[in-house]
Write a structure and sequence with these properties.
The structure is a single chain. The chain is mainly α and about 210 residues long. The chain contains 9 helices and no strands. The radius of gyration is 18 Å and the shape is globular.
């Protein structure tokens, strides 16, 4: 039992340390949690994607990707375009005279929500850096028999975080009953998204220079 607990705890704590940070994916999950839109599907997608990427990294895909800097550049530019588009959309929502209230009937369809989730998850090079490369390297350093426990612990941390973020957001609903609060949130989301997009472009151009 002890031989399984240590790699499991190592994977859980390392994954938690990497994932609990303000980022595009977390902000999107929070916003959907506040709206109570497709939270279960979004949490399942995010957690499953992390588990698969971490497993791939531990299996050796991280070393393969590290040898392809051109792929990282393409991901950075694609992610910058996606984040820039979403950031501008958030700022436009913030500036609209009819900024949403939490009870607003309009919302994303499940398909659109999952497509957006996929974009925030798979078009962000930081996701591959954290899950495939960093987690993959840490998992590969474990004894072969312990790597499955490491991946399981890391995956549990991911599912736990996204579930807490998505379903825990409802605790903030009284605050977001006012349209002004949504304006502040959308302003913050827009600024963060555009800043992340700019950093990805800078990284991509720096890597090709």
């Amino acid at each position: 039992m002890t031989h399984a607990l240590l790699p499991f705890a190592t994977g859980f704590l390392l994954s938690a340390a990497l994932i609990i940070a303000i980022g595009a994916q977390n902000l999107f999950v929070l916003r959907q949690g506040l709206r109570r839109e497709h939270v279960g599907a979004i949490v399942l997608f995010c957690g499953t994607a992390d588990a698969l990427l971490i497993g791939a990294g531990v299996a050796g895909v991280g070393a393969f990707l590290a040898a392809l800097p051109q792929l990282t550049t393409l991901l950075a530019l694609g992610g910058a375009g996606f984040l820039g588009w979403y950031g501008i959309a958030a700022l436009r929502r913030m500036a609209a005279p009819d900024a949403m209230a939490v009870s607003e009937a309009r919302g994303m369809t499940l398909t659109r929500a999952l497509m957006a989730t996929a974009g925030f998850t798979l078009l962000n090079p930081h996701v591959y850096l954290d899950t495939v490369l960093l987690m993959g390297a840490a998992g590969s350093a474990q004894p072969e028999a312990a790597r499955g426990f490491f991946v399981a612990g890391a995956a549990l941390a991911s599912f736990t975080w996204f579930a807490a973020l998505g379903y825990g957001a409802r605790l903030l609903r009284p605050l977001f009953a006012r349209p002004a609060a949504w304006r502040v949130l959308d302003a913050g989301v827009g600024i963060v998204m555009l800043a992340l997009a700019a950093s990805l472009v800078a990284r991509a151009l720096g890597g090709t220079g």
